[in-house]
Protein: M48 family metalloprotease
Amino acid sequence: MRMPLFLVAATSVLALSALSTAEAQPQQPNYLNQRDIQEAARQHPEIVEEFGGALTGPRAAYVEGVGRRVAAFSGTANAGQVYHFTTLNSAVENAFAVPGGYVYLTRQLMGIINDEAELAFVVGHETGHIAANHHKQRKSAQQSSAVWGVLGSVLGAVVGNNAFGGLISQGAQQFSKMRLLSFSRDQEYQADQLGIRYLTAAGYDPNASATMLGQLTRSSALEARLQGDRSRSTPEWASTHPLSENRMAQASQLARQTGRAGQGLRNRDAYLAQLNGAMVDDDPAQGVIDGRTFTHPDLGMQFTVPTGYLMQNGTREVSIQGSGGQSQFSGGRYSGNIDNYIYEVLQELTGGKTQLQMGQIQRTTVNGIPASYVTARANSQSGAIDVGVIAYQWSPDTIYHFVTLTRAGTGGQPFASMFNSVRKISAAEAAAIKPKVINVVTVQRGDTIQRLASRMAYRDFQLDRFLAINGIDANSPLVPGQKVKLVVYGPRRTS
Structure:
């Protein structure tokens, strides 16, 4: 029951008269629905766990403080008590809200924000969705969340949407009640308008709305370019609609209408001070995607997906998808034998509601690791499909496995190279994997954009990444004393 994502945008220009005069006036104090409040509180631990955990400490407290400052002008009764702002340990740039007063933003989104006023607009936009009860006014039907349980996704283009019908068990879809809502352009526009109203009332420069939307537009364009070189998938909940430059233009016009554009707080230095040292991209504790390869230093393992396939790293699993099918990697401690493990994976997948025509479990060895695999046939709404499981006996009490979904008759063949790539990595390889963190530096005399960009901890697109994260152009002048963000390798965290 998640509120719309910050990245969801209007796709065409809306006249400023699209919202009534009454909507533009300060709201009467309103109370959030008690049932929504209770449900949001119940869901909160599950959301936090699913999206990598919640950050704590001064940076998280800073976000909470900015959020409460902005929410105080939302027209919501007891705003200081009912609104909660959580920073998630997620490598996806996003923010979303849950009816009942819970607002979430990711550490990755914080990385592209350039000052406190832009942060205020992000949390103001999400607060606006809650205050305006947009979840009760949605126009289109709810869509399933992209969060996978054991295999909470369908084969899509391969065998058609909803191919599995009842194949996915209710137990596997532990977040089936969390829905991604499709909101009208008017509602997205109104959330921007409310965010601008709140941040202006809180003393911030309303122009931050347009610069923040510009940052998102720039980052989205860069990610589209990177998709050609990196096998990383942006999850459905983060990319329902592309950002529109029209939305940025609308925000700029609304900011001018306040009569305070260019005035008010930006607090750039304070924000950058909080951001310094923040992790970006994958957390090594959850494994790291580098091109087509996934490496988990703590588990001491690695695998590589086939060319053209995309990966998305989750808290408990890695999702893989491509033209030949979809797969998911997960596993953990197990006290039985590997055959029983495979049967239990299939049982959990189907919930006992779908008959599988199972073949015989086969045994093999992959890079010295004992493994067993099986292919089963299932009938879906769109015809027959193959469901495969390959499990690796990592240690006497630990098993990891892939589940695959492919066209009937293809079995695990589309993923054969991935199955055979699984290997144990050395202690030295594991130790070499370090997190990427933001390092705020002061421009010195003689520094150039190219020279600073060369210090970015990436093998490709260093200049593009430097420009995008700082919201500057290639011909922008650098001034000694100016602060800019670099992404560098940080020290490896130890548990």
Observations:
- The chain has three domains: 16-142+181-277, 284-431, 434-489.
- The first strand starts at residue 84 and ends at 88.
